[in-house]
Amino acid sequence: MLFAGPLDDPLGQLADITAGALSLLIGAAANRSIAEEKMFNISALSAGLI
């Protein structure tokens, strides 16, 4: 699917690059939160992405 080109999206649910970046950011924040045993504000870590 990644290199297949444009696909039909009848439900309008395809993720864009921003959704992918946020997904990575959430995972990184979760790992950091577990390692440091404290909470992180995603928007503070996003450098203006959201």
UniProtKB/TrEMBL annotation:
It comes from the Bacteria. This is Uncharacterized protein.
